[in-house]
Amino acid sequence: MPVTDVTIDPDTRTITITAHFAAPVERVWALYADPRQLEKVWGPPTHPATFVDHALEPGGRMTYYMTGPEWERYGGWWEVTEVDAPRRFSFRDGFADDDLRPVEDMPVSVSTYTFEEADGGTRAVYVSVYDSAEALQQVVDMGVQEGATGALNQIDDLLAA
Questions:
Q1: Selection from 89, 104, 84 nearest residue 38 by Cα
Q2: What is the pTM of this model?
Q3: Phi, psi of 37 (to 5 degrees)
Q4: Is residue 80 within 8 Å of residue 61, measured between CB atoms?
Q5: What's the rounded mean pLDDT across residues 2-31?
Q6: What is the band of 26 on the pLDDT scale with cuts at 50, 70, 90?
Q7: DSSP per-residue letters across the chain
Q8: Are 89 and 56 spatial neighbours (Cβ–Cβ below 8 Å)?
Q9: Parallel/antiparallel/unpaired status of strands 49-53 and 73-84
Q10: 5-19: pLDDT as tens digits
Q11: Per residue in 97-118, is it b (16+ CB within 10 Å) or e — as a string?
Q12: pLDDT per residue over 58-101, tens digit each?
């Protein structure tokens, strides 16, 4: 399993997930840079994603929805703030309604994904910071830890294909 650690820290309002992938940094980056690849691993296995917009560049926007087993849809959006390919990107990450517009009363995180060479593969660190401990707890209660871990654990299979 690629995920090696998950730390939830209410004091810093942060979720940090560390993973190790059996592929070079450039290959892991290519997954995030290509919406057709990203949608195969964004979201838990029971909730595959479809990216409607995808612009991995500063100022770029991404919108997507995940589809559950009963055909229910869950939308999300990213506003990309920083890109240092192939090592790092940062973005604001929030929930979206059925029309993929931001849901204002749901938590938004500031997330940074970092990739570095390690042990013949890639060490990835995913850090998401929330505005408040309550917002962090809300996403934890919604199952973000299980969902993110399930999603990330799909990546090695995609990279090996």
A1: 89
A2: 0.94
A3: -75, -45
A4: yes
A5: 96
A6: very high
A7: --EEEEEEETTTTEEEEEEEESS-HHHHHHHHH-HHHHTTTSS-TTS-EEEEE---STT-EEEEEEE-TTS-EEEEEEEEEEEETTTEEEEEEEEE-TTS-B-TTS--EEEEEEEEEETTEEEEEEEEEESSHHHHHHHHHTTHHHHHHHHHTTHHHHHH-
A8: yes
A9: unpaired
A10: 999 999 999 999 999
A11: eeeeebeeeebbbbbbbebeee
A12: 999 999 999 999 999 999 999 999 999 999 999 999 999 999 99
pLDDT per residue as tens digits for the range 137-151: 999 999 988 888 888
Tokens representing 92?
């604001």
Q: How many residues comprise the chain?
A: 161
- Amino acid at position 7, single letter: T
Token reading at 34: 């290509």
Euclidean distance between CA atoms 16 and 5, whole angstroms: 8
